[in-house]
Amino acid sequence: MLKPRTYGLLLLLGWLLAGCSAGSQSEETLTRAASLVAEAPDSALYLLRSLQGAPFRSRAQHARYALLYAEAAERAEVAENNDSLLRIAWEYYREHPNEIRAICKTRYYQGRSRLRQGDKPGALRMFLKVEEQLRTIDEPYYLGLLYLRIGGVYRTELNFVTAYRYYRDARDLFMRSESPRQTTEALLGMSVSALRMHDLGRARRDCAMALDLADDLADDTLVRRSLGLFATLYTLSENERIPNDLLLRVERSIRGDTSAAGRCTLAQTQLFRNRPDSARHYLRLAEMAQPDNDVWPMIEYTAYRVEARAGNYREAARKIDGFIRLNDSLTRTALQTSASMVEKEYFRERAAFADYRMQSRRVGERVVAGTVLLLLGIAGFLVRQRMRLHRERDERHLLLIREAEAEYRNLARNLAQRDLAEARLKGIIASRFDIVDRLGKTLYERENTATGQAAMTREVKRLIDGFAENGEMLQELEQIVDMAHDEVMQKLRRNFPRMKEADVRLLCYIFGGFSPQVISLFMEESVANVYARKSRLKSRIKASDAPDRELFLSLLGPVSEGC
Fold it and tell me: Which residues contact 283 (CB under 8 A, 6 or more apart)?
């Protein structure tokens, strides 16, 4: 019978085997989807949807799945919000700068997502960042695809000159990568941009090349778009008639097309057939189909041609006025001040600065390599370095000796100052003993007599008056207090420069340890008044922000009320 521990090990082993099997199956599905995404995006999307909710064995596998799903949905033209998947891919690939292609793809599809949400400036910034990174690798197809999208952004902003340049660069890149379908897309973009710039000759030439390529590909969608552009070109050209075989192709290609552009093209074919009533009917249907900004001006111009052909000149004037209002590209371009061009120049300057930094780093690396070789070639220099180190060590020892001498001189100076302070203190003590000596002699000479008591009283009174009025005795007292309490009187005068001299003297007596009764004799005030002044000064010091406030408060002590 198996033990519980053995059961646990078996379960763990089974779980690991299942995880490995699931991880390898997911990797196989991702590889199959990657091989199908370009030619059969619908099949790739079906395979990727089968992995929804499946565990991934690493962040790299999850990021690969997210990017493949976004790419397959984009190629299959499935309207899904893949921002969360693109964030997963970006959070991984941003930490792996060597994955340039994956980074560029992620940013590209982020820009496409913003473009679908109507954030054209944000999409353009993403596309320009991708362009900056794609320049580091040779990827003509992806760079052409990027230029195709940038040209579309500029075209929607009615900046047709810049849009034409990007479409032309995209065409050249697609021709390098041998991508005929995308080359046709770029040629059609060039044709539309040239048409909106009223350069009909260039538009006709580009449209003819696009139609030839679309015929070679046997792509009905591209053929229909090319023929529709030809109908628009001949509608704008009043001096040339559309060839009959081309007109027949246009009519066959748009049969059953219910879009606004298709109905506008149908109206143009009826105009070529000189059927204004039928043309008006299709134009009304085109207006009901909610045309976009590219189709509206052409509907107005076709309506003008129809009304002019029918002889309804008042209505024709109204339609041409609407066309001019919608299609005045010069006014619109002047009002727009291409902010996107400014952004592009900024990114180009930043890329140039990055190239400059890279070049400077390479120069620095060469300098470092040359320095290393130079150091290896002069090994004898180490001997001189060792000698110099010995010399510096000796100099350092001499410096330490000089510093010790300076410390010794400072110590001697401090001792001399201390001796001076002791001498001053002895002098003060001697003077105080002189006072005691005088009092003792007076007591001895007139002991127990009325005159002796009176003499003692006069002597004490004279000493008290000396402390109260004599400046020298007060100075000696301040010196004694400073020596006893860390120069408290000097700090008091620094902290409270505006304090009255009487208050300073009172605090000197208090710091000196005299009782309130003796202080009242010194200052010729009542004891209660001394207590009151002491309390007031203590409150003032406590409320202040003086640096030595705690020292003052500790010497003041508690204020007693019972005297």
Answer: 263, 264, 267, 299, 302, 303, 306
